[in-house]
Amino acid sequence: MADKPTLAFFSLACCEGCQLQVLACEEKLLPILEKADIVRFREASDGDADHYDVTFVEGSIVTAHDLERIKEIRAKTDTLVALGACATIAGVNAVKNFQDPDDVAAYVYGDKKEWFPHIAARPLKAEVPVDVEIHGCPINSDEFLEVVTCLLMGKPYRQPNYPVCVDCKLAGNVCLWNKGIPCLGVVTRAGCAPLMCPSAGHKCIGCRGLVDNPNTQAAKDVMAEFGLTVDDVLREFRLFQGIYDEVAKEA
Ligand code: SF4
Ligand code: SF4
Ligand code: SF4
User: Fold this and answer.
1) Residue 237 to residue 197: CA distance in whole angstroms
2) Per-residue pLDDT tens for 169-179?
């Protein structure tokens, strides 16, 4: 990497909430700006460059144009970081994958639907090699800072690879299943603590995607204990389709 590496940020189909989380780092970004140049960041400036040492891309691929863009970005980038659930697991964009594509286009664009051709929503790694993933909807600002620090220091970033339940238990929460509320923390990758949803009384809906090798049997045992099947539970969790597909195919 150059003495002062170049960083770039791009958005595909998304709400740009993950880039806002980057801006929300505020003064914690200053030490990074001393060590690296942000050459592309539409939310904050209008510059650009021919090559990027590290590129952060939020959003899913939902059009042929997105597909062209991610390939161009990849070709100009040394290290590609997928930023947030849309980029890592296709996120909320993948909800449309469960419906007829024509119906979806007509619902959004009405009689102009032909003007906006689209393809099934997919994460970046479905089309180009991704070097690092930062999960969550939105991302956690502290995790972003940790990833950038590791990259600038040439160290690998080791993302949490255990389920949300571990942090939930450490926080002393009473399991929501005991209150009759299905929660996906048992198979979802941790890393959102201390802001994890169950600490605020909300079920985990899987925004960080599946932990590697999820213990789906344990998840099914918990569901069975409460008289539910995998399908009953996962119907509720289609907001983050990656979770649904991965767990359902093992059901
Ligand atoms: S992951 Fe969530 S917050 Fe981030 S861009 Fe996608 S929808 Fe927005
Ligand atoms: S299932 Fe949800 S509420 Fe229960 S321990 Fe796991 S994360 Fe916490
Ligand atoms: S608890 Fe689940 S849904 Fe909530 S932030 Fe963490 S991973 Fe996302």
Assistant:
1) 14
2) 999 999 999 99
Residue 247 has pLDDT above 70, yes or no: no
Q: Which domains does the chain possess?
A: 6-153 (3.40.50.700), 164-250 (no CATH)
Average pLDDT, the chain: 90
- Tell me how far the alpha carbon of residue 209 lies from the centroid of ligand 2, in angstroms: 15
Ligand nearest to the CA of 138: 1
The per-residue pLDDT for range 214-241, each reduced to its tens digit, is 777 877 888 888 888 777 776 767 788 6
Closest listed ligand to the CA of 15 = 1
Q: What are phi and psi of 190, to 5 degrees?
A: -75, 180
Of 231, 187, 221, nearest in space to 207 by CA: 187
The answer to whether the CB of 176 is under 6 A from ligand 2 is yes
- pTM comes to 0.91
